[in-house]
Design goal:
Helix Hairpins; Ribosomal_uL29_sf; mainly alpha; 72 residues; Ribosomal_uL29_CS; ribonucleoprotein; coiled coil; 0% strand
């Protein structure tokens, strides 16, 4: 049977919490701009919306993990 155990990927570059928050703010602004474009009918690829939402969720997870690591 195949091994279904998932392992975390190792990061090439470790970012600080401030860098992650800055990137999060940028992604949230990108999402707002993409939503505005989609409503106006100007967005060529609407799948971008889902990709950006997933990236935002990943950033939230990374920030939370970094904060927990910092507490310990």
């Amino acid at each position: 049977m195949a091994d279904t155990k998932k392992t975390a990927k190792k990061a090439d570059v470790v970012k600080t919490i401030d860098e992650l928050r800055a990137e999060l703010a940028t992604k949230q602004q990108d999402l707002n701009d993409s939503r505005r474009s989609h409503k106006a009918g100007e967005l060529v690829n609407p799948r971008v919306l889902g990709q950006i939402r997933k990236e935002i969720a990943r950033l939230h997870t990374a920030i939370h993990a970094a904060e927990l690591k910092e507490e310990q």
